[in-house]
Design brief:
DUF112_TM; mainly alpha; Putative tricarboxylic transport membrane protein; 504 residues; transmembrane helix; globular; two-stranded antiparallel ribbon; membrane; transmembrane
Length: 504
């Protein structure tokens, strides 16, 4: 059965009344949390992970996908109206979007962000339909050493890209790997790092780790830095685009899509790099001097790149089980809660789930466009919600969700300890995503390493015995040292520029 037929079956599953309601709930929640600064799709999906015990997998992932896309949409609203990005990937949007809003063009800025997100999301999801089966066909031949090398690539790429320094990223990864060791060793049966507590013999629940580090840690961090002054929100009417705005926006939408999708599919690529490249490209191609004063191209291109990267992120997640962003790591945790492992076998064993989720992205994009254009003034009012009530509610909801898993006080204690760890990591600039990815992929990497060494009779050379493994390990080294080389290059350029001026 070809991809088109599978996609049609996915639409049949996604267009049932139940799944349409879950999709609507997901995109609404996603937009809401994207609008609120400090609450992103990763935190929201983490908070909702406990529902995986009661909701059917297809419905849950349709809702999670809606939250993911909705969060990308909503981040532009707070960037434009408040000059405070709801997501790091929306930082570039704030450069021109807020200036447009202060010039009285907030409606046009929100409209080009919403329509550009729709265009980019739809085109990028179509690319996902084409790319995913090709990657699956390639990944079927992977051996144990290839999967171990793939995990190493995920560790190094995410640690180096999602942090201000490689050392901090690797430190965060180390925390996650240690958390992943808690429990019984599958091969020897020995208890590891359980502190003598029988409740920890099965390991720490992924839900507890995700909710503790993302939701609780973020709530504590925001509370510690909370400003009591009311936000200065720029008023906005119904979002719309004039004919001239359409003419200036459609090309940046397409260019942003072309940049965002491939970067999202790369390990550690993320959305920040393509949004910056899109902004730089539009600034270079601009004919007038409007950039820096509120150019609509500076909103259209980066927003398109931002949403296209979200679809790109799903390519390695669904086909290889490789998360390349914080939200993708939480989605991987959700798959594991259902006893599912993303990868080539997922497309064979659960095609209805995978293609239903992909089809729901098309449906969710339409819903988001309908929600964002006429309801822009309503989303702006959400920014006035008192922060103390909001984050107190997050803490209570996180505790109730975790306690409902096993009715265990130990889980609550672990949750609050991880929340304090998440707060400390934010306080000292350590990214959270590498820790979660280390916790999720660490056990898989350990199993594949032991399996490869067993096949090779203990010979460590088996880890580089496959051409795929060699390429993946080489990419890991490149990902690890690229930030260091970039800093050295920037320092040399600075010295070269300052040397002539000092000699004069």
């Amino acid at each position: 059965m070809n991809s088109f037929q599978l996609l049609m079956e996915g639409f049949a599953a996604a267009l049932t009344w139940v799944n349409l309601l879950y999709a609507l709930l997901g995109v609404t929640l996603g937009t809401l949390v994207g609008v609120l600064p400090g609450i992103g799709p990763a935190m929201t999906v983490a908070l909702l992970l406990p529902i995986t015990f009661t909701v059917e997998p297809a419905s849950a992932f349709i809702m999670f996908a809606g939250i993911y896309y909705g969060g990308m949409y909503g981040g532009s609203t707070t960037s434009i109206l408040l000059n405070t990005p709801g997501e790091s990937s929306s930082m570039i949007t704030a450069l021109e979007g807020n200036k447009m809003a202060r010039r009285g063009r907030a409606a046009q800025a929100l409209a080009t962000a919403a329509i550009g997100s729709f265009v980019a999301g739809t085109l990028a999801t179509a690319m996902l339909v084409v790319a995913a089966p090709l990657v699956v066909d390639f990944a079927i031949s992977f051996g144990a050493e290839d999967y171990f090398a793939l995990a190493i690539l995920a560790f190094t790429a995410v640690s180096s890209v999602m942090s201000r320094s490689v050392v901090r990223g690797l430190a965060s990864l180390g925390f996650g790997l240690v958390i992943g060791l808690v429990g019984i060793d599958e091969q020897t049966g020995q208890a590891r790092l359980t502190l003598g507590l029988p409740q920890l013999l099965g390991g720490i629940e992924v839900v507890v780790v995700a909710v503790g580090l993302f939701a609780l840690g973020e709530a504590l961090y925001v509370a510690s830095r909370m400003r009591h002054a009311p936000p200065d929100v720029i008023p906005v009417g119904r979002a719309f685009l004039g004919r001239r705005d359409w003419a200036r926006s459609w090309k940046p939408w397409l260019r942003g899509t072309a940049l965002g999708f491939p970067f999202g599919a790369l390990p550690g690529g993320g959305a920040e790099i393509p949004t910056f490249l899109s902004y730089a490209a539009e600034k270079k191609l601009a004919k007038g001097d409007e950039f820096g004063k509120g150019a609509i191209e500076g909103v259209a291109g980066p927003e398109a790149a931002n949403n296209a990267s979200a679809a790109g992120t799903l390519v390695p997640l669904l086909t290889l089980g490789l998360p390349t962003s914080a939200t993708a790591a939480i989605l991987l945790a959700a798959f594991q809660q259902y006893g599912l492992q993303p990868g080539p076998q997922l497309f064979d064993h659960s095609p209805a789930l995978v293609w239903g989720m992909i089809a729901s992205l098309f449906v969710g994009n339409v819903m988001l466009l309908v929600l964002n254009l006429p309801l822009a003034p309503l989303w702006a009012k959400v920014l006035h919600v008192p922060r103390p009530y909001l984050y107190a509610g997050i803490v209570v909801f996180a505790a109730l969700g975790v306690y409902a898993l096993n009715a265990s006080v130990v889980d609550l204690v672990v949750l609050f300890l991880l929340g304090l760890l998440g707060f400390a990591m934010r306080r000292f600039g350590l990214p959270i995503a590498p820790a979660v990815i280390g916790m999720i992929l660490g056990p898989m990497a350990e199993i594949q390493l032991r399996r490869a060494l067993a096949i090779g009779a203990g010979d460590i050379g088996v880890l580089v015995g496959s051409p795929v493994a060699v390429v993946l390990l080489a990419l890991s080294l490149l990902a690890l040292f690229t930030p260091l080389l970039r800093k050295l290059w920037a320092r040399r350029r600075t010295e070269a520029v300052t040397a002539p001026s000092q000699s004069e």
